[in-house]
Amino acid sequence: MSTRAQIRFATREAGQSFNQHPDAIHAQFYKHSDGYPEGLGLDIADSIMNNVGLNGIEIEPLTTKHGDLEYIYYIWQAPGKETFISIFEVGSFAGYCEHCDQELPTAEDRCIFVGMPTQLINQYSQTRNES
Questions:
Q1: Residues 10-33 pLDDT 10s
Q2: How far is 99 from 76, CA to CA, in rounded Å?
Q3: For 55-106, how does the pLDDT look when each residue is reduced to its tens digit (9 = 90+)?
Q4: What's the CA gap between 119 and 56, in Å, rounded?
Q5: DSSP-assigned letters across all residues of 30-83
């Protein structure tokens, strides 16, 4: 089974909380497998800190929505400011109403991490090593 995730880029702006989904994103990528924090999260942090590429990601239109995501990552950037990362565990997809053919509400996404790349590595590299 795959652990699907999206990586989204947002601008750091005054008043925007890192533990909430932003109103606007500027780029979006999709990762079909290994999207959990101990995998993709550590890869994102390594990419930011060491300027290395990420394998297995696909560029997506900003309007693409997936019903089977498990994680959404936000990369928060602005000139002259530290880069922050937020990780959201996505609420389960509830499906469609058979009577009205509309999407049913999902459980709320839960922010499980906010911090700088070094903090992400400190928090999740131990979990990766214990596996």
A1: 999 888 999 999 999 999 999 999
A2: 40
A3: 999 999 999 988 889 999 999 999 999 999 999 999 855 555 566 666 555 6
A4: 24
A5: EE-S--SIIIIIHHHHHHHHH----SSEEEE-TT---SS-SEEEEEEE-TTS--
